[in-house]
Amino acid sequence: NAGVTQTPKFQVLKTGQSMTLQCAQDMNHNSMYWYRQDPGMGLRLIYYSASEGTTDKGEVPNGYNVSRLNKREFSLRLESAAPSQTSVYFCASKRDTAYEQYFGPGTRLTVT
Amino acid sequence: AQTVTQSQPEMSVQEAETVTLSCTYDTSENNYYLFWYKQPPSRQMILVIRQEAYKQQNATENRFSVNFQKAAKSFSLKISDSQLGDTAMYFCAFGLRTGGSQGNLIFGKGTKLSVKP
Fold first, then answer.
1. Vertex A100: Cα angle to A54 and B60 (nearest 5)
2. Is-contact B51 B74, C-beta < 8 A?
3. Which residues of B touch A29 (CB under 8 A)?
């Protein structure tokens, strides 16, 4: 039981490049989330998915797209990376009958 | 809109002593829950403790306990018998139990705790 996994762990991009951050969970959770963490800012919600086939914007969605591929996987795409997207990205999941979220190990992304 | 405030950016404590981290929140809702998460240098987010707003009894998990004051909208974390492994960033988080954004968490900016030998 791996919990929530994220790939890659580290990534360096040049401005304008695109990439997809992958997230998968094996806990059969319906809800999944993408956050970004910046120094002094805590975690801010980018997008979330309450169930397979649905996605909704969070607090800071600009510059990102998401895909809920199936119940297990929720990916985050940067179409044209900008230096302002340099951050640590966390994926999380939650089961319907509880309120705590379980987090992946994070991806440190640097955009130069 | 809900907000979460952690007013102590950094704190330190001697090993084996007790420390309290502060968190206040603002909401007009009545049905919610609160969490403390720990983020050690490994970067992994680890759930420390949770509190349901409708429960008057303060939650306790081993050396970790909370002081939940609903009227004051305060949710502090007490760590007893501090250990070197408690060194981490601690985040307070708020979530609604009902409504369109139920399940989404709002995080404070964190408190960096250092436990000194």
1. 170
2. no
3. none
Q: Which residues contact B65 (CB under 8 A, 6 or more apart)?
A: B49, B58, B59, B77, B78, B80
Joined together, the tokens standing for residue A105 give 């190990």
Give the residue-averaged pLDDT of A48-76: 94
pLDDT digits (tens, 9 = 90+) for A75-101: 999 999 999 999 999 999 998 888 899
Q: Which residues pair with B39 in a beta bridge?
A: B89
Compare CB distances from B105 to A50, A101, A105 and report the shortest one's residue: A101
From A41, A50, A100, residue closest to B109, measured CB to CB = A41
Shortest CA distance from A30: residue in chain B: B103
The pLDDT confidence band at residue B99, using thresholds 50, 70 and 90, is low
A107 CB near a chain B CB, below 8 Å? no
Which letter does DSSP use for residue A73 in this model?
B
